[in-house]
Amino acid sequence: MDSAPTTAAVQPERCVSRQVRNHASNSGSSMHLHQGDCVHLSCDPSVYQVIAIDEHHDRCWVRRWPLERHGSPVFEVSLASIDFRDAALPAA
Question: Which residue pairs from 18-23 have beta carbons closer than 8 angstroms and sit at least 24 positions apart in sequence?
Answer without folding.
Answer: 19/86, 20/82, 20/84, 20/85, 20/86, 20/87, 21/84, 21/85, 22/84
